[in-house]
User: What shape does this take?
Amino acid sequence: MMKAILSVSILLALSACSNSQHTGASTAPEGQQPLSPEQSGLIQEVEPSHSSVDTIGANADTSDVHMSSIEPEVEAMFEQLIVQAVADGDHQKALRFVQDAEQAGSIKARKIYEDAVKVQP
Assistant: This one.
C-alpha cells in the first residue's frame, strides 16, 4: 500500500513539474530566455514503460509475470499428492488436487500433473 501511495506521489510531482513547463510558467526574468531542461537539470517529459511494475494495482489480468503466492511447504504437499494420485491411476483425484493447488496460488501444479502423466508407463 505504501508503495502505491509513494508511486502516486511521485507521478503527481512529475506531472506537476511537466505541466508547469508546458504551460509557459517560467522563473526567468523578463527579457531573458528560460533555461532549457538540460541547463536547469529538470526532466521535461517521462515516457511510460508500460510494464506491470509501473501499473498501480496490477493483477494477473494486466501482468505477464505470474508469481506463486503459495507457501513452499504447501506447494510441496500438493506436488506429492498429485504425483501419488497419478501413480495410483486416479487422474480425477489428481486434477482435483491441481485445481485446489491453483486456487491456493500455485503456478506449478498443472505442470507437475503433466510431467507425472508423461512418466507414467
Observations:
- The first helix runs from residue 2 to 22.
- Residues 20-25 have pLDDT under 50 and may be disordered.
- The radius of gyration is 26 Å.
- DSSP finds five helices and no strands in the chain.
